[in-house]
Amino acid sequence: MSKVDVVVVNAHGLGEYCNVKKIPVVGETAKCWNRHFEEDAGKGTNMAVAIARLGGKVAFCGKAGVDEGGKLGEKWMGEAGVDISHYWLDPNVSTDLGICILAEDGNNLNLDFDDDAHNIQIPEIDEHLPAFEGARYLIAGFGVAIDSALYACKKGKEMGMTTVLNASPMQDDTILPEMPYLDILVINETEVKILLGLPKDTEIDDYMAAAQKLRDKYKCKNVMVTLGEDGSVAVTEEGNWKVAPTKVKMVDQIGAGDGFLATVVYNLALGKTMREAMEWASVYCAYLVTQPGSLACYPKKEQIEKIFTDLGRADLL
Fold first, then answer.
1. How far apart are CA 176 and CA 173, in angstroms?
2. Which chain positions lie within coiled-coil regions (predicted)?
């Protein structure tokens, strides 16, 4: 039986940063400065590390290249306490690279240099995922090929896990099948529009209704939509609700979405309801956006009491 509660099947990558005054518009040339690498990784690594630093029992299932990025994945996840027994370095692939352009107002533009062929493939999921028989939650995402992520969810469901999909990143023309094997779909405002086939400039007044449409369309059991500074909403088997944001001064939002999903699952594994898990994750993310960077900002368990108290939410401890 698995010694972990949560298995993450998603990408590891290496993050490069630069600063601009504001996010450029189409046709605009922006002057950048402070180009550098940071302790920043792919969405899968972020989620695994966030859970592990809180004391959660989590494993990362996937691969990277035999290069600096791949070796840093071993180092960062290993130091955090992630089970990396099924994270391997493949000499035939290169580790994904992401560039984050960070504006002075805290907004950011992310560019991903990803190749689906360089991440875990379906035969490799069949080979490695059975090692985690007995794990309770599986988190997958589109840092790997969509087919691989959906297959991981199907396989996890067959193994008795609660399946969670972060349908990100997505192209504008992404089309997904019905996903009756999916327990929780987690997406943001932009991804809602893509999955509902709406133009990017569509104004959505009722995200609760949009989440219900997604639940009906894709046949998944529960849908959570993150709304940035406006909080989040959920349409679930337990009921529908909105989680109000914790107001803070944003420094940057890099890695906040990954932290939200990770800590929702962390709290579910502790036995909390979905609503309780989302409320806890919302406060956690309010702290994250006051810190620069991503991986380095995910706090350890011993920091949580002070963070939540300082944000006025000691009631959630």
1. 10
2. none
CATH topology of domain 6-12+43-89+119-316: UDP-N-acetylmuramoyl-L-alanine:D-glutamate ligase (3.40.1190)
pLDDT in tens, 105-120: 988 898 877 777 789 9
Side-chain half-sphere exposure of 17, counting CA atoms within 13 A? 16
The SS3 of residue 99 is: strand
Residue with tokens 């620069």, as numbered in its chain: 292
Query: What angle do helix axes 256-269 and 274-288 make, rounded to 10 degrees?
Result: 140
pTM over 0.85: yes
Where along the chain do its domains lie? 6-12+43-89+119-316
Give residue-wise pLDDT tens across range 220-251: 999 999 999 999 999 999 999 999 999 999 98
Cα 101 to its chain centre, rounded Å, is 19
Contacts of 66 (CB under 8 A, 6+ apart): 89, 90, 91
* Separation in Å, CA 84 to CA 12, 79, 131, 204: 12, 10, 12, 41
- CB of 14 within 8 A of CB of 96? yes
